[in-house]
Design brief:
The protein is mostly helical. 64% of the residues lie in helices and 0% in strands. The chain has five helices and no strands. Helix 2 runs antiparallel to helix 3.
């Protein structure tokens, strides 16, 4: 995520003086609730697992999840790019290409 976008999210929050209401617990709850709203888009979609006709709703709910993630990272003083890079390194070790490619098993089953 580019710094400009992160700064816009934080400015939106700060302009409204909402940081006072943001703590890790409540932000984690909000992330989970917004993720559930994203999941709701796919509820009862039957064979249409991509839900192409619902792209606008998917975009909106995914944006909500990502915004709350930015807010959570800020409150916890975490650098988004850094934590993603760290996680990718761990995942590369857990899921080596030669074992994981075209395989849906979990790392402990590879």
């Amino acid at each position: 995520m580019i710094r400009e976008t992160i700064n816009q999210v934080l400015k939106f929050r700060d302009d409204r003086n909402w940081k006072q209401f943001h703590n890790p617990k409540d932000l984690a709850v909000s992330i989970s609730l917004e993720a559930a709203e994203l999941l709701e888009v796919f509820q009862w979609s039957g064979m249409d697992i991509e839900c192409k006709e619902k792209q606008d709703k998917i975009r909106e709910e995914l944006a909500d999840v990502l915004i709350y993630c930015v807010l959570m990272a800020d409150v916890c003083e975490l650098d988004i790019n850094e934590i993603i890079q760290e996680k990718l390194k761990k995942n590369n070790k857990k899921y080596p290409i030669n074992k994981a490619k075209n395989n849906s098993k979990k790392y402990n089953e590879l």
